[in-house]
Amino acid sequence: MKTFLELHGRNAVGGHQNLVSYQLRGHEEVSTRQHNGPLLKGYVTLNLLWYGKFTPTQLSIILDFLQSLNSPKAPSPTVSSWWRTTQYYKGGPSTLDLGSQVFDENYSLGKLLKSPQMPILATKAGSASRNGGTVINLLLTSADVAVDGFCMNRCGTHASSATAGGKGRLAYTWVGNTASQCPGQCGWPFH
Prior knowledge:
Elements: H1 4-8, E1 19-23, E2 29-33, E3 42-51, H2 56-68, H3 79-83, E4 94-104, E5 112-113, H4 118-124, E6 134-141, E7 146-147, E8 156-162, E9 169-175
């Protein structure tokens, strides 16, 4: 079976300038709408902040998943085959590089977090790029950390904040742990 892109070419946009359609082998066609925000392009350094206590198994699952995004040898369909769709975005493909990992096992801001605290945590993961490209800080909270609005209206969030010293912006994303707070609510297809 040929993919949508193999049949229609990399610029097939279904009549919509900001719509990219693709098909992972053996799966239905997927359309992704670009909302005119900046796209991840080139090398992207992902710095991690582990907030709370994580088991070695939890750490391994997350790191294996993130490293699988750039795996050239994985059989299809895989997460890496989905990530490779970035090659069809304007500006070319994105390559993910794991940067620093910071562990805050002492809950420096407590176990009940408010949204305004997320940028504070984001800066703790640093802003250094290992390859001169874009930096995104990924905040992961353990199962015993409650974040306002979590499970009620969101499973995570993304935003940007001023860097330390105010010389630029730092992009970050936060993902909570649904295991005990709302099992099954934040899985595919991202309910």
